[in-house]
Amino acid sequence: xxxxxxxxxxxxxxxxxxxEPHPTTGVTISLLSLSARHCLPISPPDTPTFYLKLAKMxxxxxxxxxxxxxxxxxxxxxxRLFQQHDGKRQWWKTGRSGALLYPYxxxxxxxxxxxxxxxxxxxxxxxxxxxxx
Length: 133
Hints:
- Helices cover 42% and strands 0% of the residues.
- It is mainly α.
- The longest helix has 27 residues, at 97-123.
- It is flat and about 85 Å long.
- Keywords: Membrane, Mitochondrion, Mitochondrion inner membrane, Transmembrane, Transmembrane helix.
- One of its GO terms (biological process) is mitochondrial electron transport, cytochrome c to oxygen.
């Protein structure tokens, strides 16, 4: 018996079954005899072929999962929207502009005011935002 429970041959190796590549992936798996099924040594895949097939599969799947295939072409709509002469700034023309710009303005002006306040305190010798020191 070998370490996996398979029958050993005279040379100390376990008896192996014939090796055939997998029909779709091309990965070759070497199997021990049927008595040693619980301990299957798997040979590493043929690296270039395996990774090329994997990349091909993933490159077709990920765009479909992300919703980029068979989408409506929105370029003419946005082109008309942004080329209208309606007096609005370009960054305010979409419906989502406020959701993006108001938090930006709060962080921009808030940071400017806080740093100006802190610099004013530093000029007067205070090293903290509030308190005596």
